[in-house]
Amino acid sequence: xTGVTQTPRHLVMGMTNKKSLKCEQHLGxxxxxxxxxxAKKPLELMFVYNFKEQTENNSVPSRFxxxxxxxxxxxxxxxxxxxxxxxxxxxxxxxxxxxNTIYFGEGSWLTVV
Amino acid sequence: ELKVEQNPLFLSMQEGKNYTIYxxxxxxxxxxxxxxxxxxKSLESLFVLLSNGAVKQEGRxxxxxxxxxxxxTLHITAAVHDLSATYFCAVGAPIQGxxxxxxxxxxxxxxxx
Lengths: 113, 113
Description:
The structure holds two protein chains of two kinds.
Chain A: E1 4-7, E2 10-13, E3 18-25, E4 31-38, E5 41-50, E6 53-57, E7 64-70, E8 73-79, E9 87-94, E10 103-104, E11 108-112
Parallel strand pairs in A: 2-11
Antiparallel strand pairs in A: 1-3, 3-8, 4-5, 4-9, 5-6, 7-8, 9-10, 9-11
Chain B: E1 4-7, E2 10-14, E3 19-25, E4 32-37, E5 43-49, E6 55-58, E7 61-66, E8 71-76, E9 85-95, E10 98-103, E11 107-112
Parallel strand pairs in B: 2-11
Antiparallel strand pairs in B: 1-3, 3-8, 4-5, 4-9, 6-7, 7-8, 9-10, 9-11
C-alpha cells in the first residue's frame, strides 16, 4: 500500500465509449502524474500536475483528457480510444523536487475493444 | 532528449549467484531511481540516489550512482527466488515543483533454484 489509490483496477471499453480513471493520494503531496505502460514501449509520462496546475503534457492525443480538481485527486477522461491505447495506466504522486520518492498506484488495466 | 538504457533486458540466474544490472543515461542528472515491478503489479520504490558516488543498500540489493559516467548499477548479492521481478531505473528531471521520470526499458530478472 503506497497511499496512492486508483480505480477502477480493470476497465474494458469500446472505441465509442467515454470513461474515466480516478486516482487519489493520501500522502499530502503536491504533484500528481499519469504514466502509461504498454507492452511495446518503456513507461512513459503523460501528464504532470503541480498544485492542481498542469505543468507537462507529453504530446498526448486529445482523446486523453486529464483533470485535477485538487492536489489529492487526479482523473484521466477517456473518449474514442483506439485498441492501441490498451495499456496499464499508472498514477503517481510526489512532494516537491528535493528527490523524494515518487509513489505509484496499483494501476488501471485498460482494454479497448 | 534524455534517454535511459538498461542492460541486460533479460537475466536468468541461479540462486546464490551475484549479478549487476546497468543503467546508462544520456544527459546530466543527479536523481536516479530504481523500482521493482512484479507481474500484474505496480512499481515499488527501491532506491533514490541523489548525488555522485551515492550508494544505498537494502538486503541483497545495492545501488550506486556515478553522475560523471552517467551510470547507475543495481547489484544483486547471493540471489534468492523472491527477487525475481522486473527492475526499472529512471532518471529524474525537475519540472516546476514536480519530477519527471524517464524510464529505462526494464530488466526482467528470473532467479532459478
